[in-house]
């Protein structure tokens, strides 16, 4: 870790490297805070290569904060569909509406005002304000924390609040005040391209001479692993109705502020927050339990004798949950009526905002439908 005397050289070397070798990314060609904000939100849980087409499509449809604020939420979610973690998209739109209501449509330049917007935490606020406006706020995320832990040979769980606070102070000390935007991006770029979690490329590193972790030969083992939460196994069963025209039935996300019990109360929010197949958490006899659930969900369907055809298994992991989803194909002449539900072609469920898990279920059901002759 550079001391105060070495700081100028450290900054010069890292910035020089960044300016020469940075990746050409669409959000680096602009200083528009709206674009930078959008990219930062998308990149929170998504790899750069996966985020680029979404970023470009989103900007084409919502080129500024006004277009985003005025759009139907369903359309915003549809353009986010496939990126996952949909609360990001909902918060993005809520924040756009607040920017118009409270800040005249201009992204706020004060840290407190930025932090008051939904979905914007310390890291995102520092990134937007430094890159768009040159404000002197150092970013600290997992990438930057890894670089700092290696530079300083710091042991222990970095996410513990005391340790994280000290890392923030170190990041603040290193920040190049005259080019805070480039500086923050340089730190992130170093973490993303050379100082990677596995096999850091120290031979190419522009600041290797200041790195305690490298000198001690322990760089790759830092930061030390966090104590992880035990994985919880979850089994779900989903009903994929298909009528003679290839239409299927999707249930809506729960209405805001509703106290009503809905089918969504039975399933994890990762499924129910978007349009979804009728889905139930199950243990044991999944087909029977799903049948009973469908009869309850669909008044008037008590006498129907549906045949539930197993359509394989879908596996999905979200944070500490390992989900096994069992889709059941149900061929019917006419789709049953469910209040609020929509009928959409099974091979084009993406006309509504759906989660990745729902997409996987649709794919499994389509594969099963192709191999099982339909008996309506
Ligand atoms: Fe990371 Fe290696 Fe550079 Fe240290 S020398 S900052 S471990 S890439």
Q: Could you list the spans in which at least 5 consecutive residues all have pLDDT below 50?
A: 258-265
Largest sheet descriptor: 5 strands, mixed
Helical segment count: 15
Oligomer kind: single chain
Share of residues in strands: 5-15%
The ligands found in this model are:
iron/sulfur cluster
Assign the CATH architecture of the largest domain.
Orthogonal Bundle
- Which secondary-structure class do the elements indicate? alpha+beta
Strand elements, count? 7
Terminus-to-terminus distance: 70 Å
At the fourth level of CATH, the homologous superfamily of the largest domain is: Hypothetical protein, domain 2
CATH class of the largest domain: Mainly Alpha
- What is the succession of H and E elements? HHHHHHHHHHHHEEHEHEEEEH
Give an account of the 3D structure.
It contains 15 helices and seven strands. The N and C termini lie far apart (70 Å). The protein is an alpha+beta fold and 376 residues long. The chain folds into two domains: 215 residues, Hypothetical protein, domain 2 (Endonuclease III, domain 1, Orthogonal Bundle); 140 residues, Alpha-Beta Complex (Nucleoside Triphosphate Pyrophosphohydrolase), CATH 3.90.79.10. The relative contact order is 0.10. The strands form two sheets. Strands 1, 3, 4, 5 and 6 form a five-stranded mixed β-sheet that branches. The longest helix is centred in the N-terminal third of the chain and has 17 residues. Helices cover 43% and strands 11% of the residues. The site of iron/sulfur cluster (SF4) has 15 residues, from α9 and α12.
């Amino acid at each position: 870790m550079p001391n105060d005397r070495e700081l100028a050289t450290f900054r010069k070397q890292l910035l020089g490297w960044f300016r020469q070798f940075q990746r050409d990314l669409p959000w680096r060609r602009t200083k528009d805070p709206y674009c930078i904000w959008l990219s930062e939100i998308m990149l929170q849980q998504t790899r750069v290569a996966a985020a680029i087409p979404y970023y470009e499509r989103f900007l084409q449809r919502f080129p500024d904060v006004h277009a985003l604020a005025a759009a139907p939420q369903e359309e915003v979610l549809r353009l986010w569909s496939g990126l996952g973690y949909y609360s990001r998209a909902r918060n993005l739109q809520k924040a756009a509406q607040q920017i118009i209501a409270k800040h005249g449509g201009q992204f706020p330049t004060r840290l407190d005002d930025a932090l008051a917007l939904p979905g914007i935490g310390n890291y995102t606020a520092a990134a937007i304000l430094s890159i768009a406006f040159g404000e002197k706020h150092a970013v600290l995320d997992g990438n930057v924390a890894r670089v700092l832990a290696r530079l300083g040979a710091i042991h222990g769980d970095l996410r513990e609040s005391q340790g994280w606070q000290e890392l923030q102070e170190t990041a603040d000390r290193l920040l190049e005040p005259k080019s805070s935007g480039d500086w923050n991006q340089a730190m992130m770029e170093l973490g993303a391209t050379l100082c990677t979690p596995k096999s850091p490329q120290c031979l190419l590193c522009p600041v290797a001479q200041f790195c305690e972790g490298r000198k001690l030969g322990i760089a790759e083992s830092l930061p030390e692993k966090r104590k992880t939460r035990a994985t919880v196994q979850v089994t779900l069963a989903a009903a994929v109705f298909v009528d003679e025209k290839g239409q299927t039935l999707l249930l809506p996300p729960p209405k805001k502020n509703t106290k009503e019990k809905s089918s969504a109360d039975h399933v994890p929010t990762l499924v129910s927050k978007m349009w979804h197949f009728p889905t139930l958490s199950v243990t044991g006899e999944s087909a029977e339990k799903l049948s009973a659930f469908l009869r309850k969900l669909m008044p008037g369907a008590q006498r129907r004798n549906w045949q539930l055809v197993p359509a394989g298994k879908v596996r999905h992991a979200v944070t500490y949950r390992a989900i096994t989803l069992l889709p059941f194909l149900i061929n019917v002449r006419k789709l049953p009526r469910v209040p609020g539900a929509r009928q959409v072609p099974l091979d084009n469920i993406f006309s509504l905002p759906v989660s990745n898990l729902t997409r996987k279920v649709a794919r499994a059901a389509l594969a099963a439908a192709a191999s099982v002759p339909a008996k309506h």
